């Protein structure tokens, strides 16, 4: 063998063997097989989630007499979290965190709520939000592998009204309609300037997303244009569509995401429940490049991530969002406090509690009822870590203070939907903050929050 031949043989023998890597564009599982497999598993996971919900909550339709959301949907009342047999809220409130943890007394409904199928995750839309865009535009946001899990009466009203900071005289500028690509110009031309109108156009335009795209591993039966910002934040508000947070790993630690309202975005200084992004422009870019694709850049590149232009498109979207106002609150004065001539005695007592004994006003000061900060409630003091339907109930960490203006329009509550009513939130914070509120005080506090 020549010297050159010997050298070549040595290189081939000692070099790492090249292993063919799978082409991500080639499906590991043919799409028809994927659909068949996931659809066959769907009833199992739906039953698992429904059993969890029924074990934790009273899911019945129990509206509060005379209390409605801004467009007239009844507000649900009552504490929905179920307690262990023999336990009462007063008994719990009389225990220390260590006693509750040692005795395993923490109510299951106060633990983190898993995604409808936590192992699969991804965006999932409510039935009204699926039906109306399909009717208007023919676009289908149905997932073939799972459905949304909460009943309609526990969700925000649909479609919600839109109130603009620039035209409060108009009231609901949506005219009771869901704003989509089919009607946004008809509804808003002449009310918005050209930049704002273009921003609204982009907010109702669908872009590729992890589960809704044109690739083989999507979760829609037909190739999809994607999802729009206003699919979750319909009419600049929320429909309680959910997702799993994209920037936490491993998967069992990922939070179910409550879709917050965009109303009052102009007074907010932090964006994302935990990300603390400083501008809505930052958040828009983060959503498009990362959150839409579960924080996986390789998926974003393959499935068609839309890189918006910061100086024009992102700016236009932000300019429109800054116009979204809170709903009217006729009983509040210019300082965001109750007008004594309009409020009931119960509401006035609730306000005094809110800014006094209940300590709500520490994090939720008037007039917009947010301090634009993040706080760690350290709820893990009350329970042992436990895996629930694929979600590990453990420490949540700091969460931003969401505004409480218009809060009755935005059920369910907390950053992961674990609380169905405002009554539930009062019981939760009564325990977490050690407030020792009695039954009448809790009712007064809820009455006040319903008029914010």
Structural write-up:
The protein has two domains: 64-111 and 329-452, Cytochrome c-like domain (Cytochrome Bc1 Complex, Chain D, domain 2, Orthogonal Bundle); 120-327, no CATH class. The N and C termini lie far apart (90 Å). A hairpin with a 5-residue loop joins β1 and β2. Mean pLDDT is 94; it is low at 1-21. The strands form four sheets. Strands 1-2 form a two-stranded antiparallel ribbon. The chain has a two-stranded antiparallel sheet with strand order 3-4. The chain is built from 15 helices and eight strands. α7 packs across α11 (310-321) and α14 (422-432) crosses α15 (439-449). The longest helix is centred in the N-terminal third of the chain and has 26 residues, at 31-56. With 452 residues, the protein is mainly α.
Structure summary:
With 452 residues, the chain is mainly alpha-helical.
Which terms summarize this structure?
mainly alpha; 8 strands; 15 helices; 452 residues; Cytochrome Bc1 Complex, Chain D, domain 2; 2 domains; two-stranded antiparallel sheet; disordered N terminus
Q: pLDDT average, as an integer?
A: 94
Q: Which parts are unreliable, with pLDDT below 50 for 5 consecutive residues or more?
A: 1-21
Q: What is the beta-strand fraction?
A: 5-15%
Q: Give me the number of helical elements.
A: 15
Q: Describe the biggest sheet?
A: 2 strands, antiparallel
**Could you give the count of β-strands?**
8
């Amino acid at each position: 063998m020549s010297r050159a031949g010997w050298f070549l043989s040595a290189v081939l023998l000692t070099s790492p063997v090249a292993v063919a890597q799978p082409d991500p564009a080639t499906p590991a599982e043919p799409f028809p097989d994927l659909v068949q497999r996931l659809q066959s598993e769907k009833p199992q996971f739906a039953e698992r989630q429904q059993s969890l919900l029924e074990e934790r909550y009273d899911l019945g339709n129990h509206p509060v007499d005379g209390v409605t959301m801004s467009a007239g949907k009844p507000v649900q009342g009552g504490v929905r979290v179920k307690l262990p047999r023999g336990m009462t809220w007063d008994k719990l409130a009389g225990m220390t965190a260590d006693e509750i943890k040692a005795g395993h007394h923490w109510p299951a409904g106060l633990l983190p709520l898993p995604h409808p199928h936590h192992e699969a995750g991804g965006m999932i839309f409510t039935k009204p939000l699926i039906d109306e865009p399909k009717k208007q535009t023919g676009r289908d946001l149905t997932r073939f592998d799972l459905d949304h899990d909460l009943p309609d009466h526990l969700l925000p009203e649909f479609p919600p009204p839109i109130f603009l900071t620039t035209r409060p005289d108009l009231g609901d500028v949506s005219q009771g309609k869901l704003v989509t690509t089919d009607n946004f110009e008809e509804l808003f031309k002449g009310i918005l300037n050209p930049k704002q109108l273009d921003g609204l156009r982009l907010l109702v335009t669908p872009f590729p997303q992890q589960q809704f795209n044109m690739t083989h591993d999507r979760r829609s039966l037909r190739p999809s244009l994607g999802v729009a910002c206003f699919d979750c934040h319909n009419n600049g508000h929320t429909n309680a569509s959910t997702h799993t947070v994209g920037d936490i790993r491993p998967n069992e630690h990922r939070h179910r995401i409550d879709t917050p309202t965009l109303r009052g975005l102009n007074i907010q200084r932090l964006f994302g429940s935990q990300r603390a992004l400083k501008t809505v422009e930052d958040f828009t870019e983060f959503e498009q490049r990362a959150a839409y694709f579960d924080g996986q850049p390789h998926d974003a590149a393959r499935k068609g991530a839309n890189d918006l232009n910061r100086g024009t498109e992102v700016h236009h979207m932000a300019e429109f969002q800054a116009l979204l106002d809170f709903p009217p609150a006729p009983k509040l004065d210019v300082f965001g406090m109750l007008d004594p001539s309009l409020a009931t005695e119960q509401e006035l007592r609730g306000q005094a509690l809110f800014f006094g004994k209940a300590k709500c006003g520490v994090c939720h000061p008037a007039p917009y009822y947010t301090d634009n900060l993040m706080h760690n409630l350290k709820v893990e003091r009350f329970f042992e870590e436990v895996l629930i339907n694929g979600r590990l109930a453990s420490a949540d960490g700091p969460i931003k203070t969401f505004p409480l203006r218009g809060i009755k329009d935005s059920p369910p509550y907390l950053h992961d939907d674990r609380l169905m009513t405002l009554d539930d939130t009062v019981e939760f914070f009564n325990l977490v903050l050690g407030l020792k509120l009695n039954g009448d005080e809790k009712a007064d506090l809820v009455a006040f929050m319903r008029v914010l």
